[in-house]
Structure formats: structure tokens, C-alpha cells
Amino acid sequence: MAKMTHLMVDLEAMGTNPNAPIVAIGAVFFDPATGDLGPDFYRVVTLKSEFQMGAKPNADTIYWWLTQSDAARRAITEGERLHIVDALSQLTEFVTDYSTESGLNRLQLWGNGASFDPVILRSAYARCNFPEFWKYWNDQDVRTIVALGRVIGFDPKRDHPFAGERHHALADAIHQAQYVSAIWQRLLAPHQDQLSASALHAVYAAGYNHGHLNTADGIAYQNDVESEFEHRALEVIAETGTLRETK
Ligand SMILES: [Mg+2]
After folding, report:
1. Domains with residue ranges and CATH for the chain
2. Where is the 3'-5' exoribonuclease Rv2179c-like domain (predicted)?
């Protein structure tokens, strides 16, 4: 099975600013097209190490944490806690162990908010002087998907109730991965024909690029080949449609 290239990340932090101290990191690979979950990651980070590295807390967020459940507060104050540098290095190791090099270039990093998890995580990697493992153009936003879901009548709060402990970074990440997948599938359901065409196209293009198909003529894979293939793929789909109708 192909490796998953979507990673949902949820951070618990002591601020909402880009350089907020991270106190827990949850992450899970997932496939939004199927809703399947892959390997997951969870580490708690010491606030002290984040202060040492120059992260800046926010008073409102500290007060907010004081009003959260005992379980949520215990999750970040008890048990094994790591220095932020170790937590980030282990997160990088977790992701690179699972991904191929080209997978890393395509790795979609999801967070609940265009201004939150990916931004705060990137800032943490920068203050720890450690290269981040994903490309900035692969940041993905849960909130945009939720807004699209509401437009088509799917509200995660109503249609996908939370199971587990709120504000636990891994439970949050898993929950978000599940409802993003649920909305993704509803959004794409009316477009199955186009999806089959683009999947066939991707297979053909990969074969062509790797020299498995028709390379005797020495023509590199180009736009005309691409459009010719799209044409053929649409023919195949049309034939399949006809077969379905005649059944
Ligand atoms: Mg959370």
C-alpha cells in the first residue's frame, strides 16, 4: 500500500502567537480519501525548555489552561516530558522513518488553523535551529475544510462528536484527521469519474517518466502526451459507463 502523505499535527501551546511555547505535540498520518489512519506520534514538552529557547507565552492562554479539565492539565504536567529540541528531533525522525524522500516533498502538513499549528511548529524548529521536515507550500488548514463542510451541510460538532480527551494533542489530531476525511469524501463523492481519470493519468505519467512505457521513440513525457492520455482515459471511462448502463 502506498504510504500516506497527509500528516495531521495538533499542538498544545501556552499562547496563540507564532513563537508560543509548545507543551505537547500530537501527530497522525492519514488518508483523507479513505479516512484510514497511519502511524501516530505524541510527546509532551517541558515549558522550561521552551523558555530557555526563547519562546514567549501569552497570559490569556495561560488563564484558558487553568479553566480546562483535570485530565487535560495533567496531560501536560505529569509523566515523561522532553526538552523541545529532543521532541522536535523525534518528530522529524518519526516522519522521515515513515516517508520516502519524494513523499517528504509532498507531505501535506495539516493544522487547525492557517495561523496556528504549522506556524507555531515552524517557529519552534527555527528557534531550535533545526531544519523543518515539510515544505511551506504544503501547509493545509483544517478550518477551511470545516467551512466547506458547513456549506454542504456537514458540521463536525454535530455530525462527528469528539471521542476521547479534549485538548490532548494526539486525541485532537486523530479527531481532526477523521472529520477532515469525512468532509473530503463528501466533497469528492460527486466527482468519482474525474478522480478515476486523474488516477489513471498519474499511473501513466509515472510509467512514462520511469521509462516503462513507449520510450523507444525517445520522446520525453510532454504536454501533448499528457493531453493524449487524458483523451484515452476519458474514452475508457466512457466505455466503462456504457458497460455499466448495459448491465
Ligand atoms: Mg489540541
Report:
1. 6-190 (3.30.420.10), 191-246 (no CATH)
2. 5-184
Dist. CA 109 → ligand 1 center (Å): 15
- Band the pLDDT of 234: cuts 50, 70, 90: low
Tell me how far the alpha carbon of residue 193 lies from the centroid of ligand 1, in angstroms.
37
Q: 61: which 3 cell numbers?
A: 492562554
Dihedral sign for Cα atoms in the order 216, 217, 220, 221: negative
Q: Which residues contact 103 (CB under 8 A, 6 or more apart)?
A: 3, 5
| Interval between CA 170 and ligand 1 midpoint (Å) | 8
- Distance from residue 219's CA to the centre of ligand 1 (Å): 51
